[in-house]
Inverse folding.
């Protein structure tokens, strides 16, 4: 028997009345390993922020199953590495849901942080200032912080950007371990070959859901072309949510898991999308 972890219902997201994700329906089942893919500006990071509760929907809703513990790793570009902190302090921040921001760490917490650093290959880096780490080392430390959170739902936004191949391999191993433990993991990924190799499911976005399902089928040449056409044909000057009949007819060809409906109607005028 499957259990929903995340439910999207006619979800529309955006900033300053400017939608970035339109009319997303579907269910992420508990234990799913899902890649979120799409071009720049397709709404991938926006969706992650909505799931974690950092962004309120413009329409519809996003619901996470009650009691779900969430760990969220944003893009490195959104993090301030100049903050004067040591690696062990960065990793220990993952304990705040259990201890509180001002809570005192217990003896077992030091052991937990040490095990997490060992798991990501950073044993001996405990006292290193974070601003002295390479990009790959810093990402390993961030994964160690996720490890100590012991979360049910893990959201990773572009965790493989600008890091070396060895680090990517090691972090992918951790993601597969989380999946094997029955955790729900959503990862924003640009490397489509990696998605085809590692991820069972993929959600392809182009400011709207293009297709959601088996990763290899979702990333077919045909679907990638459709995503590019949707992205390129977007009319930024058009008013929001004025669907046209021809757009509605064109938006019914890709099934979304658990939704009972196909591609959602693009809520703004499209040019030449068939």
């Amino acid at each position: 028997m499957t259990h929903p972890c995340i439910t999207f219902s006619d979800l529309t997201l955006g900033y300053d009345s400017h939608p970035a994700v339109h009319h997303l329906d579907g269910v992420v089942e508990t234990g799913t390993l899902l890649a979120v893919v799409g071009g720049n500006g397709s709404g991938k990071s926006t969706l992650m922020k909505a799931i974690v509760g950092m962004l309120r929907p413009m329409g519809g809703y996003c619901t996470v199953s009650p009691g779900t513990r969430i760990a969220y790793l944003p893009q490195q570009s959104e993090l301030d590495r100049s903050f004067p902190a040591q690696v062990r302090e960065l990793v220990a921040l993952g304990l705040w849901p259990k201890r509180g921001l001002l809570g005192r760490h217990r003896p077992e917490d030091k052991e937990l942080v040490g095990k997490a650093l060992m798991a990501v290959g950073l044993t001996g880096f405990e006292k290193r200032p974070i601003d002295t780490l390479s990009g790959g080392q810093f990402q390993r430390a961030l994964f160690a912080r996720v490890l100590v959170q012991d979360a049910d739902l893990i959201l990773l936004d572009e965790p493989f950007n600008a890091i070396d191949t060895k680090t990517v391999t090691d972090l992918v191993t951790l993601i597969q371990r989380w999946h094997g433990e029955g955790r729900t993991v959503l990862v924003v990924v640009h490397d489509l070959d990696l998605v085809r190799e590692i991820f069972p499911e993929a959600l392809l976005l182009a400011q709207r859901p293009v297709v959601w399902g088996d990763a290899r089928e979702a990333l077919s040449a045909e679907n990638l072309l459709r995503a590019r056409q949707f992205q390129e044909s977007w009319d930024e000057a058009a008013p929001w949510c004025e669907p046209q009949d021809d757009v509605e007819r064109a938006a019914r060809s890709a099934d979304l898991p658990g939704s009972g409906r196909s591609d959602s109607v693009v809520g703004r005028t499209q040019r030449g999308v068939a």
User: Anything to note?
Assistant: Confidence is low (pLDDT under 50) at residues 237-274. The chain is about 35% helix and 20% strand. The longest helix spans residues 165-180.
